[in-house]
Specification:
Layout (H helix, E strand, L loop, with lengths): L1 E2 L4 E2 L6 H31 L4 E6 L2 E5 L1 H7 L3 H5 L15 H12 L5 E10 L5 E13 L2 E10 L1 H51 L6 H32 L8 E4 H18 L3 E5 L5 E4 L4 H14 L6 E8 L3 E8 L6 H6 L24 H11 L3 E5 L7 E8 L7
Parallel strand pairs: 9-11
Antiparallel strand pairs: 1-2, 3-4, 3-7, 5-6, 6-7, 8-10, 11-12, 12-14, 13-14
């Protein structure tokens, strides 16, 4: 029997020649089908928008053009990688999860991966989000892993944006509820007192002396002031939110402004039996809004008086350096805890002290310090708060920076 390269020839007409020839033809047919299948696979994957990679024994055996494009490396670079080389481009937030996934798959704990999302660094350093799908296949007579990856950065960013917007909506809803609760309470108190006082006045005799009806007129007047302040604070808060809170800056004597504010609050200090100690030296000038800046002083100083029990002390003094002017308001009041300091300047961040037997004034909607902070920041300054805790007093520092050019 002689082999000619294509068939076996046997002069005696041996039937085995036919069988061997059929085996060769079937093997060649199988090879042709495999080659055709591989060509179809490459044609499809090279045109795909999905990244495709084949890994076998931790070696990278095949990557398509899209896989290279997604990672920013060329195919020749990637074909020299082994699977652990990918650890260096996986984001630190996800690298341990990625390693565990590879280890578990290597141990045969599962045959496929679905919806695994993680971040990587492209060759350019850009961070992108990928989603990975993988399953076992046979490749060149051995077991391998066929993996698909998609760049889902835009999808993740959209999801994160939706989550952020949802959080904002929840926050706005909470603010709305807080607004309704807070304003309802703040409106009810003065309106109740005004209503009661007006009822008494209406029932009084025309012959009643002014001395007899004056207390009820004062009650009604005080309630009107509270309503006026509440409405003004709500309007200011709205202006701040809508970026319509504008200031006019002129060179003003800070000492004179402080003295006017102290004069206005002397009645509150007397009513609460608190000593207000003001220590001002030479006149200090600064460019500020002469109508809005007193609002800050009134808010912080009145808070100090309201949160200091009777027979306490409130100190106010100035400290000037080459860089800044500090207006310091220090009290011997109930002080602030760490949690209270966090919410102090938030909108409706009123610290509830009702029923705490601290002997303090609990009036207010929680807008005063929020607005004060915005006003001071519009002056290029800041408000600092110090307190060592409950019953240890508080210190508020209104710091005005001299080097802020936009007001000069």
């Amino acid at each position: 029997m002689e082999y000619t390269g294509k068939v076996f020839v046997n002069s005696k007409g041996n039937p085995n020649v036919i069988v061997i020839t059929r085996d060769i033809r079937e093997r060649k047919k199988a090879e042709d089908l495999l080659r055709e299948s591989e060509e179809k696979f490459r044609t499809i994957t090279e045109q795909s928008f999905i990244g495709v990679v084949i890994e076998q024994g931790f070696d990278i055996k095949y990557v398509n053009h899209q896989f290279s494009t997604i990672l920013g490396y060329n195919s020749m670079e990637l074909l020299n990688w082994r699977l652990p080389d990918f650890y260096k481009i996986v984001h630190p937030d996800d690298v341990e999860r990625f390693k565990k996934l590879v280890d578990d798959k290597g141990k045969g704990l599962f045959d496929k991966i679905t919806n695994f999302q993680f971040k990587i660094f492209k060759k350019t350093g850009e961070i992108i989000w990928l989603e990975l799908f993988s399953r076992k296949i046979m490749f060149k007579d051995g077991s391998a892993n066929l993996a698909f990856i998609m760049n889902i950065t835009e999808k993740r960013e959209a999801e994160e944006l939706i989550l952020e917007e949802n959080e904002k909506l929840v926050e706005l809803d909470n603010l709305r509820k807080e607004l309704i609760t807070r304003i309802s309470h703040e409106l009810r108190t003065p309106l109740t007192s005004m209503y009661a006082a007006s009822q008494i006045l209406l029932r009084s005799n025309k012959e009643d002396t002014l001395e007899k009806v004056l207390p009820y007129i004062e009650i009604s007047h005080h309630g009107s002031i509270r309503l006026k302040e509440l409405i003004e604070n709500l309007l200011d808060s709205s202006r701040i939110e809508n970026k319509k809170f504008e200031l006019r800056y002129t060179n003003e004597n800070i000492n004179a402004i402080i003295n006017d504010c102290v004069q206005e609050l002397n009645y509150l200090a007397d009513n609460r039996q608190i000593t207000l100690n003001v220590n001002l030296t030479t006149d200090v000038y600064f460019k500020l809004d002469k109508n809005r800046f007193p609002q800050v002083l009134i808010n912080i100083l009145s808070n100090a008086l309201k949160n200091t029990p009777p027979n306490g002390m409130v100190y106010l003094y100035l400290n000037e350096t080459n860089e800044y002017i500090d207006i310091i308001i220090k009290d011997t009041g109930v002080g602030l805890t760490g949690e209270e300091k966090k919410k102090l300047f938030q909108k409706f961040g009123k610290i509830e002290r009702y029923g705490m037997d601290l002997d303090v004034d609990i009036e207010g909607a929680g807008l005063g310090l929020y607005i004060s902070k915005e006003i001071v920041e519009l002056h290029g300054g800041q408000i600092l708060v110090e307190s060592e805790g409950r019953y240890k007093g508080s210190t508020f520092i209104i710091r005005l920076n001299k080097g802020v050019d936009k007001f000069q």
